[in-house]
Structures are given as structure tokens and as C-alpha cells.
Fold ABC3 transporter permease C-terminal domain-containing protein.
Amino acid sequence: MWIKNFRHKKLQTTLMFIIIMLCSMLISASISILISLDKPFKDFVKECNSASGILYPYSQKETDVIALGEAFAKLPNVNKIEYSKVHYIDEEITSNDKKLEGFFRLAEYKDSIYGDIRFLTGSKDTIRELKDNECIIPACLSNKNNVKVGDKIKIKFSNGNLFYTVRGIYSEIYDMTTSYDSEILIKQLPKGVYGNLNIRLYGKPGVTGEDIEQAYREKNDGQMNGHIITLEDTINVNKISGNIIGAIFLAIGIIMLVVNCIIINFMIQNLMITDAKVIAIYKTMGYNSGDILSLYLKFYFFITSIACLLGGVASASISNIILISVFKNMGKVVTNNLLVPGAICYSAIVTLVIGMIYRIISKTKKVKPVYALNGMTNSSTKKKKYYKGNLKFQFSAIGIALRGVMRNRKNSIVILITSIVTVFGINFGVISLDVANTLKDNNDYWLGVDKCDVMINVIDSNKNREVEDIIKNDSRVSYVLNSNIATQVTMKWKKGTKLTTMKGFVFDDYSKAKLPITEGRNPENGNEIAISSKISKSLNKSIGDYIEIYLGGEKKVNLLITGIFQTYLELGDCCRLTTSVYTDNNYDFNYNYFSIYLKDKKQMNFFIEDMKKKIGGNGNITARTEAFSSIMDMIVTPQKGAIPPVVALMLLLGGINIFCIVILRNTSNEKTNGIYKCLGYSTWHLICSNLYYVGILAVISIIIAVPMIILLYPSIMKVCLSMFGFIKYPVTYNYFHIALANIAVLIAFIISTLISSRSLKKVNVRDLVQE
């Protein structure tokens, strides 16, 4: 019977197999990605003997840093501490005449810190034999900027250029992304290059960086003159892209599975109607309902199981592509375990599909042997009302389609749901890509920099006046704003509180900066502050409340919250202050950025190149849209990588579903189509009726789904980006791209309908007459 089932239903069975396999592939891949992220990082940390946390002191005095380190070393849960001497590279850094994007620092090599790092190119001997003009670079720098061994790196200082030849490429947990500080390892810092001391904290077995911080704060009344980046937070940051892609795949996979279950349900129902005579014949031969139910369930269990297993095996290629991209800066080929995700996916899909099929097939108990004569059709007839309308329209192709929509409501609802989900998913992807492509242009909103044309980062505060004079005397400049985008403020620590530090944006006058604000207004004087939406949520603070902060970790001020804004910077842990907060409290403060507004924006590229020559190594010049581009890339790159294939897969599955539905419609309407052919209608006429049928429902679904996605998209993205605490997600929709996406859906549906409608050529009038 299995062979007979497949032979007579090979098209439906094949389509069902493909649908289940694709869903299984996507869901298995998503589960595999999500559960394969932890272990490689844990193994990597053990291999590299990574610190439990890195402490960044607020004081720049070496005596203060050493005293702070010794205080940590006395904690009972600390095994040891190590001092790391680094220089934060705010200067322009290039390689092969290309500017290197990201946050970097020069770090003096110490065997006690870096002795166990993983080398992708080179070895421990390489780094121990480094010369003064040689360096070892992190894999994230190499991968992002295509810097290889043998290339030269140039750092543009005010007193001359510094060159390093790359001797090796390494990876370590704290140096896996250019969105945060990653270290270029050198023998020692050159003379004249200012260095900071950071403290690496190594906890005893089982002790986390958070445990160390809590122990120190409890011993020192909550005060700590520095902030800690813990190992756990670093791992979570490195897992962001994998979690985003895995979550997208899982959400889309579940949506497609629900829709495809509706299709399978409809498909099995139609098959049971066509098999009614066969079932009746088996009953006349002595088979009971239980035997027949068992035969069908075994057949579909076999089909579903093989589809799930093949989908699980095929998912390895998808998950490996994603995992390789996540772990490429680790320098490890990750082989994911198919057993767990495959078992989860297999159990869920097989249980769902077989349970649904059982519910439908169990109705065959009602089939009586007498149905062997007339199938499941009802022999009774109802008197139909006399039709007074336009018979010519009623029996035109569009009339037949409209009548089919009204009479076969269940079929129509299935197509409508399929179309709505497909249109919704594809429009979601297109809108997401449009937003991703405009994030850099709108980084005033997403990061918090003012919407200037050019930004200049001045490293040495003694050069501020010199650089400012050059800018203001340039006739191409409309006006200039001074700011500081590197200051930090702290909050009083309470037990159980993880948030203690905020990155501060400091401007003289926010009315000129005109930075976007979500609620309220930007601060106007020295006793006011605007906080990010994430800080507001974490501290349960709102406009009108006061917040106690410490400037540089030591000067306490109490500020009124006047506004709430949103930002990706520092994962949302930011605030906005005026310069007078510092000056009114007699606290040292220096600007580090100039925001330049040009009279003619078309001259921007020429202005940048010209200004580089004028100020030399006194400042790092960049277009505002490229400021902090590595942070924006961390958000944008996963979306650009994951969304297009998912959109393509959704379009493919939508087309397959339409194909299935039209095939089933043709099968269930075989007699009706035969009658139409008896009346003289051609095959093309019937094909046109199918095209109108699908087209009408597709247009209705677009009318429903497009406004739905436009209304729901911001809310969906707020949930997806909840880690940043967003309370608003403004979107400027590109309606041209939306229109193209929906035209593509219509074309895919039309092609699917045309291909599936080829079965109408097999409708034979002779078969109808014989029956």
C-alpha cells in the first residue's frame, strides 16, 4: 500500500516532503547556532588563561593605579593581578594606504598576560622575539581590514609617523571585535607615546569578574576608582551577532512551520476525499478502520521522519556558515553537534505533523463500504436559486475565480494566510535591510553624535586651540561645535547592581547640536542631565527625577533628569551633560572632538583631504557618517548576512505553498473543470481562472500585510533590540523598495500558479463521460 500511496500521490507527497525538510532545516540550523555559542568561548577562555576581568582606572597616575591594584590583590577571591601598559590609539591608523576602522590600542607584551593566546599566524617564539618596529595584530583587525603578515601599519602622531611591520596574528577573548578596544601587541611603547596602566584581574577557580567587583565594593563602601569589563560581559558581546541571526532564523522557521502545517492539513484533507473510494474498497476486503489508519500513519510518519532527518543534516551547512562567521575572529573551525538540535526539531515537527494527520485520517472510520460506489460525494441535491445576473461575466475566467473564492472559503483562507505571512516576512526583511543601510547616515540618532559633516578627534588637548584656529579660519566652514565623547561618569553602587558607569556626551550648547531626544529635552545647564532609555529602565528613573553621579569617579553631583534618548554606543549605557557640569564644579575638563558644519556639503571629501594636510597628526579626521563605524557594523553586518537568504527562503516556500494549493484545487475541481471543457472552455481559460483566483487573494493579502508590517515593524524591532533599552524605533520607509518586494511576491505566485496549472491539460472530458 505504501508504494501505491506514493505512486498515486507522488506530487503531493514530494511537495509535503520538501516543505517539511525546509522547515526542519531552518529550525535545526537556528537551534544549532543558539546552543553552539557557549562551549567554544568557554574552551577558548581556558586555553588562553584569560583574566576574569579588566579594570580601567580613572586616575592616570601610576602610583594611584598600583595602589588600586594592590587593594584588589588582597581580596580573598583574587588569585593574582597583572598590570598592562597600553596606549589608546586616537590617532589616525592606516595600512596599505587604507584607514583602519575600529578601536585599537598599543599594548606592551607580557608573557604572564599573553603567554597562552591563540596564534593564527606565527607562534609564541615570534612574539618573544619581536623587534621595536614589529607587532602582532588581533584577528579581528586582520579580518575586517584585510591586513596580513608582512604589511605595515602606520600611526600618524603629531611629531611624526610610527611604523610597525606585522609579524603575526593572534586571538584572545578580549580582542575579538573592533567595536571595542582590541590590542596591537608590541615589544614596548616608543618614547614620547603616552601610556596608561590597566589591571588584569584573575579570580580563583569559579570566581567571576562580577564576584571580584562585588567583593571590592563591599569592602570599600561601594566606591571604586575605575570600571571593570568582566569576562562574562565580553563573551556576551562577542555572541551578539550569533544570537541575532539564530533568533531571526528560529522566528522565521516557526512562522513557516505554522503556515505549512495549515497547508499540510488542507493537503491531507483533500487526499482523504480522493481516497474515499480506495478506503471503502479496503473495508469491503475485510480491513478495519484501525488497519487503514495504521497504514496511512506509518506512510506519513516515514515521509515526515526522512524529511526531518534530511533537513537536520542539511542544516549543518547553514549553521556552519553562520558559526564560522561568528568565530572567525577566534580563529577556530567550529563543528556543531547535530544530535541535540536534530532531536529537538525531529520530536517537535514529527509530533505536530503526525498528530495533525492522525486527527484527519481518523475520520476515515466514518467511511462505509457503500462509498466504493460514489466516493464521499453527497448524492442528495439542493434546489438552486435562479440566477438573474450577468451570465457572461459569471462564467468568464475572473467570474469563475471569484465564484471559487466564495464557494471554497477554506481553500481561500489557506491561500490568504499563506500570502499574508509570506508578504509580511518578505517586507520585514526588505525594510530591515533599508534601515540597516541607512544606520550610518542617521548615526546622530542611533549613536548620539551631532549631525555635522566632519568630525575631528584631537588626541593632545594642548593642540586644541591650534586645531580650532585652523578650522575657524577656513572659509568653507559654516560653524564648529566643541564636544567630548570619551568622558565617563559613575553612579553609586548598591549590592546587586551591575550598572555603575555611563559614557558621557558633553556639549556646550545642545540647541546648536540639535541631537534627537526621545522624551523631554536635552540638558541646558550644569545641574541637568539626559539619560539613555536603557539607564532609565535599569534605574527606574524618569524625567523630573534626580540622579546622583560622580565625575571621574570622585566628584559627586546631583542632577535633574530633563530628557531620555536612545543609543547603540556602550550597549546603551550613556548620558548627556553640558560643559558647565564640570566647570561649575571646578573639575578639569578638556574637549576631544570638533564637529564641523560645512557651507557646501559637496566639498566634504576635498575638505577632509585638505584638512588632513593642514593639521597633520594633531587630529584624526573622519566624515560624521563613518564615526564609530565598527559599532554600527556590529549591528548591521549580522542583519545583512542573515536577512537576504531568509527572505529568499520565505519566497521559495511561499511559492511552493501556492503550488500545492493550486494543485489540490485542480484535483478537487477535476469534475467541474471537465464540465467546463465539455461546454467548450479551453485549458488556457481554466489556467486564467487559477491566475485570477491566486492573484485576487495575493492582492488582498498585500493590502492587509503591508499596512500591518508598517504598523508593527517598530514594535517588533524594539523587542529584538531590548538589550539596548529602546523605547522608540523610528523608521523611514522606502516605499519604492516595498513596492518592488511585493511585485516580486506576485510574480513568484503567478509563476507557481502557471507551473501547477499544467495539470489542467490532463483533464479529459472522456473520463468525465465514462464516470
